[in-house]
Every structure is written in structure tokens, then in C-alpha cells.
Amino acid sequence: MWLDLRYIFIKNKVLFGDFVRLSLPALGNDIAWSVGFSMYSVILGHLGTDAVAANSLVIVVRNIGTVFCFGIASAGGILLGNVMGQGDLERSKRYASKTLKLTVIASAFGGLIILGATVSV
Predict the structure, then answer these.
(1) 13-45 and 49-85 helices cross at what angle (nearest 10)?
(2) How far is 116 from 83, CA to CA, in rounded Å?
(3) Which of 11, 45, 82, 112 has its CA at 20 to 30 Å from residue 52's CA atom?
(4) What's the pTM value of the predicted model, to 2 decimals?
(5) pLDDT tens digits for range 78-106
(6) Residue 41 phi/psi, 5° resolution?
(7) Tell me: the pLDDT tens digits for 29-61?
């Protein structure tokens, strides 16, 4: 069976409305994150070379933490989506609770690492 490219151009107002309604919050979230990360450069540009040098080290640690947190969120979303798609809402509640606990533990661990790094310096 071949892919019929005519289906790409079919307009469906209900489907488009759902797409816009569901995608706008995600778009807003991504825009907020990109503006927030861009502000680091703007602020550092006014602080001088010492701050820029210190930030180059901090950025590596921040990026590792960010990737770790986004990885937990993505994995949790995929896991919960699969379980909810199977119609098992009780198991999805248990998985959501475990994902939430894992997120809190990971953030507390990251906070302790940052606290330890600032105390030792």
C-alpha cells in the first residue's frame, strides 16, 4: 500500500482546532525556556570576564542537570502515555507517583551537589 500524499492537504477544522489548542501550551513552554536560557548570556555580558569564565564551567554542570531532568520527564511521559493508552489508569497513577518521587529525589540530589560545590569553593 502506497502513501497517498493527498491526505496531507485535507483540511479538517476540528482536527486543526484540537492541534492548536493542545500545541500552544507546549509552544509557550518552549519559548519561555529559550528566553530564559538566552537571558543568561545577556546578564553575563554585563558582568565581565571573570563571570564569563566562571559561567563556562557552570554551564556544563547545568546542562548535565537539564538533560537529566528532561530525560526523566520524557521517559515518564512515554511510560505514562503507554500505560494510559492501554486503559490501565490505576497503574498509571502508581507510575505517576513514582515518577514524581524520582523527580523530587533527583532535584534534591542535584541541590546537594550544588550546595557541596559552593561550600567547598
Answers:
(1) 160
(2) 38
(3) 112
(4) 0.52
(5) 989 999 999 988 999 999 899 889 888 88
(6) -65, -40
(7) 999 999 998 887 788 888 888 888 887 877 787
